[in-house]
Amino acid sequence: MVRYSILGSGSCGNSYVFSFNGHSIMVDAGYSLKQIVQRMADGGFDIAEVDALFLTHLHPDHAHSAGTFARRFHKNVYLSAKCLSYAGSEYWALNIPKDCECTIDQGQIVEVGPFTVECFYTSHDSAGSCGYCISVDCKTFVIVTDTGCYNSLMVQAARDADVLFLESNYDVEMLRRGPYPLALQRRVAGQRGHLSNDQAVGFLSDAGFAENGKLVHLIHLSANNNTVQLVQAATQGFNAHVCARGERYCYDIN
Q1: Containing domain of residue 69, as a range?
Q2: Taking a C-beta distance cutoff of 8 angstroms, is the pair 97, 74 a contact?
Q3: Buried b (16+ CB within 10 A) or exposed e, 176-190
Q4: Quick one: DSSP state of residue 196?
Q5: Other CB atoms within 10 A of residue 72 CB
Q6: Exposure of 86 by Cβ count < 10 A (0-12 exposed, 13-18 middle, 19+ buried)?
Q7: Does residue 190 contact residue 165 with C-beta atoms inside 8 Å?
Q8: Are 78 and 103 spatial neighbours (Cβ–Cβ below 8 Å)?
Q9: pTM (predicted TM-score)
Q10: Closest Cα to residue 25, out of 1, 4, 56?
Q11: How far apart are CA 138 and CA 142, in angstroms?
Q12: Please, where are the H alpha helices in the chain?
């Protein structure tokens, strides 16, 4: 049986853990390491079993404690090859030990214990941002987050998934009427920003989720420009679970 947990999602932090037969991998570490350890323990997960951490990109709500994790447990941290090639102060500030630094590129398969992991590039204002396809025990999980648009490669990955994690960051009208200055509104809604609720629905429709009934977790809701209720209303007709900001969720899948 595969166990997984959304340790938390949203502008306050993002982190996910997948576990099988005493081995785990983590995607993103957007909380302090102390918080991650506690959130994992509360869900029955042991951080000592985490064999590697995979980062979608370097923004602090996804990578905050990546360096601390690597130094404390001396485990590998994977980021996209493009991300490392463009690495700047945001990356070096994490202080990931060189012997824990690993890259993954689009189309490359990385094996970590019983897990196989592939990445695909996303469109975000953090160089080399990516999503992941994670396979274990004949189950596939796909994470699509922090991307201002989507393409056929992402849609096909979702079609092949047993469980999808999909960004539904903002409601168009809330963003337009909200407190953000125009420049920030344009950043959020731009090609290198985030997916809106409407875009998430379009993605799910293109990936056939209305017909196949597969589970989708709607993640990374904006604190200022979205609500759980709006996402629930937008995704009626799908087997959708909306992740409230910062809340922890645990699941088992056979």
Answers
A1: 2-253
A2: yes
A3: eebebeeeebeebbe
A4: B
A5: 12
A6: middle
A7: no
A8: yes
A9: 0.97
A10: 4
A11: 13
A12: 33-42, 60-63, 66-73, 81-85, 89-92, 152-159, 172-177, 182-189, 197-206, 209-212, 228-234
pLDDT tens, position by position, 139-182: 999 999 999 999 999 999 999 999 999 999 999 999 999 999 99
- 3 exposed, middle or buried (CB, 10 Å; 0-12, 13-18, 19+)? middle
Half-sphere exposure of 101 (CA within 13 A, CB side): 13
The closest of 100, 57, 111 to 82, measured between CA atoms, is 57
pLDDT digits (tens, 9 = 90+) for 187-242: 999 999 999 999 999 999 999 999 999 999 999 999 999 999 999 999 999 999 99
Tokens of 45: 């997960």
Domains contained in the chain, number: 1
The CATH number given to whatever domain includes residue 75 is 3.60.15.10
